[in-house]
Design a protein that fits this description.
Blueprint: H1 2-13, E1 25-34, E2 41-47, E3 61-65, H2 69-81, E4 86-91, H3 97-105, E5 110-111, E6 118-119, E7 124-126, H4 132-146, E8 149-152, E9 154-161, E10 167-173, E11 179-184, E12 186-189, H5 195-203, E13 209-214, E14 217-220, E15 232-240, E16 243-254, E17 257-259, H6 261-269, H7 271-276, E18 283-286, H8 297-303, E19 305-307, E20 309-312, E21 316-320, E22 326-327, E23 332-333, E24 339-341, H9 355-375
Parallel strand pairs: 3-4, 3-12, 4-8, 12-24
Antiparallel strand pairs: 1-2, 1-11, 5-7, 6-7, 9-10, 10-11, 13-21, 14-17, 14-20, 15-16, 15-18, 16-17, 18-19, 22-23
Helix pairs in contact: 1-9, 2-4, 2-9, 3-4
Length: about 375
C-alpha cells in the first residue's frame, strides 16, 4: 500500500496547474478566541476556486500542528475528502523545511520504483527536477488551491479536550507577546521529533517513548582522514562495536566525518545502543571487502581503521508516541476521539533512502482521509 500511495502523490500532485493562482477569494474560516482582555478575532485564508460554497463559522475545523511533510500532506488530503472542512496548519518555523534539505537538496521522496520520477540503483526516488523546491512548490500550491490555511511563526504550546469532544489549543506567536486560543473539532499532531508534539500528546493523556537521535553522521577524531574528503567508495562494510550492525552498501567519507548511506543506516539500527553508551565506541571500516586479507594484509592495514567517535547532526529521532496507542488503519488515537498523529512524532523510524518520507506521506494520507470522512459523515476506515 505504501508504494501505491507514493505513486499517487508523485504523479497527481507534481502535475498541479498554477493557472488559477490569480483567481483567489478570501473566505471566513472561523474564529480565534484571544486570551483574556483581548478581542475575538476572525482568521481568514485564501481559496482559489470561486465556485466553492461559502463557509460559515459553524462548520468544523481541523487544526494540524506541524507544517512538515506529514502535516501538509495530511491537510491537503483532509480538505480533498471534505471540501467544506476548515483546515488550519500551524508551523513554528518554515513550511516543509526538512523536505528542502532532504537528499542534499534533491528530496528523496520515497524508496521503490516510480516510472515518472528518477529512481536510483539503491531504490531511492527523486523528482525529475532533482530539486526539492519542486516538491515544496507543488505541495504549497495544492494546499492553497484546496483552501488550506497555512500559518507560520506560531507555536501550539497547550492542548486540552472539552466534555463536548472539542480541543482547546493555546497558540503563541514567536515574535510577539500574544496568546490565541483556538477551538478545533479535529486535531492532527504532525510536528516531527520536536518536544512540542510530545508535550501536546502528553497533555492529552498519551505516553512518550523517550526520543534519541537516529540517522546521524559520525565524527572521527583522526586528522589523517581529512585527506579522504570527497572520496567515494563503491562498497564498504562498517561495523560498530556496540552491537554487530553491518550493512554492505555504498559509503562516502567527507572531511573528518563519516556520512553517507552506510553510516546513516548503521546509526539508525544502533540508535539506542549509541545513546546508552554516550556515543562512544569502536567503528570498524573495511574499504576493500572483496579482497582477501591473506593476500593484501599490508593494504588492509592502511585502510582498516578503528577510532572513537561521536554523533553529529541527527536528521530524525527514534521514539515518540507508541504505536500501541494508535489505530494504524486510521492513525487515530485509541485514547482521545478525533485526535490523530502522523510522521515522526510517532515511534517510527526508517533507515535512510526515502523510508522516513514514505512514512510521512502514508501517515498523512491515512490520517487526512480518516478525518475527511468523519467530517463528511462517512466511515473513517481507509
Amino acid at each position: 500500500m505504501t508504494f501505491s500511495l507514493a505513486r499517487y502523490f508523485l504523479y497527481l500532485h507534481l502535475s498541479v496547474s498554477l493557472k488559477t493562482a490569480s483567481a483567489r477569494t478570501t473566505k471566513n474560516y472561523g474564529y480565534l478566541l484571544l486570551a483574556p482582555k483581548a478581542k475575538t478575532t476572525k482568521f481568514t485564508t485564501t481559496a482559489i476556486h470561486n465556485d466553492k460554497p461559502q463557509k460559515s463559522s459553524e462548520e468544523e475545523l481541523l487544526v494540524v500542528v506541524g507544517g512538515g511533510a506529514a502535516g501538509v500532506y495530511g491537510a491537503i488530503r483532509a480538505k480533498t475528502v471534505a471540501p467544506n472542512l476548515n483546515v488550519l496548519v500551524i508551523e513554528k518555523g518554515k513550511l516543509l523545511s526538512k523536505v528542502k534539505i532532504s537528499g542534499g537538496g534533491r528530496c528523496n521522496v520515497t524508496n521503490g520504483h516510480c516510472a515518472d520520477n528518477l529512481t536510483e540503483d539503491d531504490g531511492r526516488v527523486f523528482p525529475v527536477s532533482n530539486n526539492s523546491s519542486s516538491v515544496i512548490d507543488c505541495l504549497i500550491s495544492e494546499a492553497k488551491c484546496r483552501g488550506v490555511s497555512l500559518q507560520t511563526g506560531k507555536v501550539v504550546t497547550g492542548a486540552s479536550s472539552s466534555a463536548g469532544g472539542k480541543f482547546l489549543l493555546k497558540n503563541e506567536k514567536r515574535t510577539l507577546d500574544s496568546v490565541e486560543l483556538v477551538e478545533a473539532d479535529y486535531l492532527l499532531i504532525a510536528s516531527g521529533s520536536s518536544q512540542q508534539g510530545h508535550s501536546l500528546a502528553v497533555q492529552i493523556c498519551h505516553s512518550i517513548i523517550d526520543p534519541v537521535p537516529s540517522l546521524f553522521t559520525f565524527k572521527i577524531e583522526d586528522a589523517q582522514l581529512t585527506e579522504l574528503s570527497g572520496v567515494t567508495f563503491s562498497e564498504v562494510i562498517v561495523k560498530l562495536k556496540l552491537e554487530n550492525v553491518q550493512r554492505n552498501i555504498p559509503q562516502l567519507t567527507q572531511a573528518c566525518f563519516f556520512c553517507g548511506p552506510a553510516i546513516l543506516r548503521l546509526s539508525a539500527w544502533g540508535a539506542r545502543y549509541l545513546y546508552s553508551s554516550g556515543y562512544k565506541g569502536k567503528l570498524i571500516v573495511d574499504f576493500v571487502p572483496d579482497l582477501h586479507i591473506e593476500d593484501l594484509k599490508s593494504m588492509l592495514s592502511q585502510h582498516k581503521n578503528r577510532f572513537l567517535g561521536q554523533f553529529k547532526d541527527e536528521f530524525v529521532t527514534a521514539g515518540g508516541v507508541p504505536l500501541s496507542e494508535i489505530h494504524l488503519n486510521t492513525m487515530g488515537s485509541r485514547i482521545q476521539p478525533n485526535l490523530y498523529f502522523a510522521g515522526e512524532v510517532l515511534n517510527v523510524e526508517g533507515v535512510t533512502g526515502g523510508f522516513n518520507f514514505q512514512n510521512a506521506w502514508s501517515g498523512g494520507y491515512i490520517a487526512g482521509t480518516s478525518i475527511g470522512r468523519l467530517a463528511g459523515h462517512m466511515s473513517p476506515t481507509v
